[in-house]
Amino acid sequence: MSAKYVFVTGGVVSSLGKGIISSSLAKLLQSRNLRVTIQKFDPYLNVDPGTLNPYEHGECFVTEDGAETDLDLGHYERFLNIYTSRANNVTTGKIYRTVIDKERQGAYLGKTVQIIPHITDEIKRRMLLLGKSGQYDVIITEIGGTVGDIESLPFIEAMRQLQWELPDEDCLVIHLTLVPYLSAAKELKSKPTQHSVKLLQQDGVQPDILICRTEHKLSQDLRKKLALFCNVRPNAVIESIDADTIYRVPLMMRDEKLDEIVLEKFGLTDVPEPDLKGWKSFLDRLGSPESHITVALVGKYVELQDAYKSILEAFIHAGAANRCKVKVVPVHSEYLTEDNVEEKLEGMDGILIAPGFGERGLEGKIKAVRYARENGVPFFGICLGMQMAVVEFARNVLGLKDAMSTEVEANTANPVIDLMADQKTTTVKGGTMRLGAYKCLVEEGSLAYSIYGKPLISERHRHRYELNNDYVDRLNEAGMRTSGRNPETGLVEIVEIPSHPFFIGVQFHPEYKSTPENPQPIFVAFVKAALQYNKSKQK
Ligand code: GLN
Questions:
Q1: What does the pLDDT read at residue 424?
Q2: What residues of the chain score a pLDDT lower than 70?
Q3: 202 C-alpha to ligand 1 centroid (Å)
Q4: What is the atom index within ligand 1 of the atom nearest the CA of 357?
Q5: CB 327 within 8 A of CB 292
Q6: Which among 462, 491, 492, 512 is the best mutation to test ligand 1's pocket, defined by most ligand atoms within 8 Å of the CB?
Q7: Which residues are paired to 326 by β-bridges?
Q8: CA 502, CA 379: separation in Å to the nearest integer?
Q9: Position in ligand 1 atom list of the atom nearest CA 358
Q10: Residue 477 CB contacts under 8 Å (≥ 6 apart), including other chains
Q11: Count of beta carbons in the 10 Å neighbourhood of residue 81
């Protein structure tokens, strides 16, 4: 069978959830034994989102092979329970870079290099790349941005060309739109969708399926009207009503028969019925918690719900695994002071210190670590959160009052966190951090070992700084155990405090690998510890 291609575009407004719709369709097809992957084409000129701050673009997701990518790749991995890679996220910056590099090498000698055909050819090459690997039956391509944006035009044009170049039964376009409800008129309105489809048609693309985001159910009449005006079959007008959790969307799409319509177009009639047992049992656990806990997420981007996406999702998975509803309370590290730290953190069953960059909010993070350490509150530090746990311990237990990371104080007398050796000569910022999966050897008898249940683990990284090995002996002697190290470089990857009920800091980002069907072990253990702490307080 040749690979099948689904393209997903969005119209009317942004943030309709193309990533969730793409992931949900992928989940349904995967549950029918098809090999599915999803890729995202983003229209901006950055080569990757690694140089964007979370205010611009939410969390930066990191793949096993060390690509800094759009956060939608996190959704793809969580829904499909498979890894994505560098090839799954393409930006306009990457496309132009390839074409311009080729031009300089003389690949187009004598020719004018143009958006059509050179840029569109490179987009098409990348759109087909994963399909050519032979690893997948279906490749879903999400086109970032909203139809009508100037910057996504070359992607739409490439998709138009592919619609003609690929056999009819190998290519399908889904358009996701908004059907708004006007409360004054008490009516759902179809006009924005009609206009959005017209924009696509102007660009030469006819969608096969319309998925309509709506707050109210679509009547049969409205579906018929949308079908008539948008040139699609009535059964291909799909309702996507707001869900209580994104993880229910695959089941909602199944009720709307989205998978069947796609399979019919592809002529795939002999695939099995979906097997969603594992997914449903996760949803059951999620929907029937037996206990509740509250954890603090201490960070500097907490006002933005997308900035710590993978962490929030990992808590949902770990909560379901413990049959516990985890309420995550954002605590802004910039406003945590000596005077208010107790007031802000008392009542928390666990404290997580988030990853981050730069000076803003650092002292607040250090105060939160101290509060957790001194009060026996379950503690979990991720990346910068682990680094600040080391700084706090060095300052308040070792008595090195000026201990700091050289990221913010280049000349500190006690650089307990310092630049990795190979980073000292690196000046280029894009894609040059320690990125992607690295192995870590966990010491037997440690908390980390009891969590993972094995000595050799692998987790994903995104940082330039590390625990300075010159301080390891002093930290160990004072009661901070360095329980995990990279087997090749000796870099410390995990710290813990054995005298504390649950205190762990990790240099890597465990949140990236958590999925509903494979919740991340540290998150699961942290929720469990928070649950115990909560119970012990009630005694
Ligand atoms: N800023 C720190 C570093 O580069 C931590 C990075 C992070 O938390 N992802 O090492």
A1: 82
A2: none
A3: 46
A4: 1
A5: yes
A6: 462
A7: 293
A8: 6
A9: 1
A10: none
A11: 14
